[in-house]
Write a structure and sequence with these properties.
This protein is of the alpha/beta class. The chain is about 60% helix and about 10% strand. It is built from 20 helices and 9 strands. The longest helix is centred in the first third of the chain and has 25 residues. The C terminus is likely disordered.
Length: about 425
């Protein structure tokens, strides 16, 4: 009896040892024991199952040896193609890489690719320089259904992204800039942003020594918005089937072009071959609608006069002249422009005054970054984690200067 018990113990021990070495778990053992007791699996079927299981684990171990032996060998595989991805995206090249593309190229799963990327070292922000441009971009909606707008900080000198924050709200920005040493914040001499009251509050509180410059694009955008509201108001006075209504709706973009751009635009009717002159059409429309004419030429006159970048005293006089002129207008939209200019008077004067750069500082670089970030989000069909998106964007900041230089070379006319 004792010999029988010892023999049974040895058989059970060998059985468990075999199962452990072959990679099976205790759940598999329980299921197999139930199947043996109920259905009665033959020895030949068991041998076939063991062979299939051995082949499966042999292939799985082979993958582990190739790709999971050392994470240091895998991380460059995942990280560097992402940097190459940004280089191709910003230069509008053919190849646009996603996590799935990298995983397929190196024969690893998408989940493992994302895990290695997330576990890589956190990318720190760059130090502040004498000029910073701030802006926001749309990221998605949170669990409450509210839109989320991350905050981006760009250095216009080196064309590099300094940092990206998940929120643009006033409490979050205050807590972020409060953690930055005062010695570093005092280095900033120019603070460029749009007409957001939160940004003006942040500038006054943490960058009091810097000049707050409002982006030129957002100043012109005020005129374009008022043109849009005036055009829609005129359209409502006509029937939807009328020629005037259809014309103002179809050719609304010509109101946002200046006269120099309209001279270069030509449109040929495919049916009649008639040449459509945008400049003549705009003059004809403005002649019939004095309300549109007043806003359009107010924008043209203001832009031409203020872009000369004179000293602050002359710029202040010009600004006060246009504010008084717009306030006397009978058009309510022109008076609204005067009210906005009066509220942002100092920031607009800083934008059109002479500075160390000898040209008008704008948020064009930050706006360009936002466009490329949107491309990156669309390629990846969105991001669930903001930190993952931030890491992918900051990963490419060392390449952006080269990218912008090459794009500027493409725009230069050939001699």
């Amino acid at each position: 009896m004792k010999n029988f018990r010892s023999l049974t113990k040895r058989i059970v021990f060998l059985l468990f040892s075999f199962i452990f070495l072959s990679g099976a778990n205790f759940n598999t053992l329980a299921q197999s024991s139930k199947q043996v007791g109920t259905t009665g699996i033959s020895m030949q079927e068991q041998q076939i199952d063991h062979k299939r299981r051995d082949d499966f684990h042999r292939r799985d171990n082979h993958k582990k040896d190739d790709y999971r032996r050392n994470d240091k060998k895998i991380k460059p595989i995942v990280i560097y193609p992402m940097a190459e991805d940004h280089f191709n995206i910003f230069l509008s090249k053919i190849k646009k890489v996603s996590f799935k593309d990298v995983a397929e190229e190196h024969n690893i799963s998408v989940t493992q690719c994302i895990r290695i990327f997330d576990e890589s070292n956190k990318i720190e922000r760059l130090p502040f320089t004498r000029a910073i441009c701030v802006d926001e971009f749309f990221f998605g909606y949170d669990h409450k259904g509210d839109a989320q707008y991350p905050f981006i900080i760009v250095d216009p000198d080196s064309a590099k992204i300094i940092d990206i924050l998940p929120y643009r709200t006033k409490p979050y920005l205050e807590s972020y800039f409060r953690c930055i040493p005062k010695e570093e914040r005092t280095v900033v001499n120019f603070f460029v942003s749009d007409m957001n009251e939160t940004y003006r509050t942040i500038k006054k509180k943490f960058f009091s020594q810097a000049l707050h410059i409002v982006d030129h694009f957002h100043i012109i955008k005020i005129f374009n918005e008022k043109l849009k509201y005036q055009r829609l108001e005129i359209m409502k006075s006509y029937e939807k089937d009328s020629y005037e209504y259809k014309f103002l709706k179809k050719y609304h973009k010509m109101f946002y072009k200046n006269t120099a751009e309209l001279k270069q635009m030509r449109k040929i009717d495919e049916k009649t071959g008639e040449i459509f002159d945008w400049e003549l059409e705009l003059k004809y429309v403005l002649r019939h609608y004095p309300q549109l004419q007043e806003i359009y030429f107010a924008r043209e006159d203001f832009t031409y006069s203020m872009m000369k970048l004179e000293d602050r005293y002359k710029t202040f006089n010009k600004m006060d002249f246009y504010i008084q002129k717009f306030e006397k207008s009978t058009n309510k939209y022109v008076r609204e422009i005067a009210s906005t200019f009066k509220n942002w008077r100092f920031e607009i004067v800083n934008a059109y005054s002479k500075n160390d750069y000898h040209f008008c500082l704008t948020n064009a670089i930050a706006e360009n970054m936002n466009g490329e970030v949107k491309k990156l989000i669309n390629i990846s069909y969105g991001y669930n984690k903001f930190e993952r998106l931030r890491k992918r964007i900051l990963q490419s900041r060392s390449l952006i200067k080269l990218i912008l230089q090459s794009s500027m070379m493409k725009r230069e006319p050939s001699t």
